[in-house]
Amino acid sequence: MEIRSTRVIIILRRTSISSPDGVEWEFWRELSWELLEHSLQNTARANKRYQFGELRVGRLNKIIRAKGLAGYGVEDLMRGYRLGYETYGQQLDGFLVPILAATAYILLVLTAMQVGLGTDRLQESVPFQRVLYGFTVFSIITLLILVAIAAFTILLFVVFNYLSMKAHLRKRMAFYASLGH
User: Is the pTM of this model over 0.85?
Assistant: First the structure.
């Protein structure tokens, strides 16, 4: 039970709900202050960097990748603090879902333009046909470029992970060789 004033001690003594006999207010204040001071919830004991809140994994990844861009290493740039994907399939899903959403939107726009092209007024409109042609070419090229970028990024991760695994394997085998059989 929380005791915040001398009145609470007096009420507890009278009602015998709890018997803090022999407990004086000054002793109780000193005891509670001592307990609070050494409590795990006491933020005064925590390092100053924790008083502003924790960094989320996404932010830590950005910080580490920025450090990698600054020339501290390719591994920091590729992996960040924590790699967001555990398998290449998850990585492929992460890249292709936005591309599929863009494709769906482009298909809606192209369908609407095709319906507009079916009307007599827009069928003979040269500016509309130019816009339709330009948007069609733009959408085809953009989607191909996005898929190529996704495939290249995954290929880059595959090569990087393979080289990292080989380097780790060489270090481990060198360690075992140094132990001597």
Answer: no
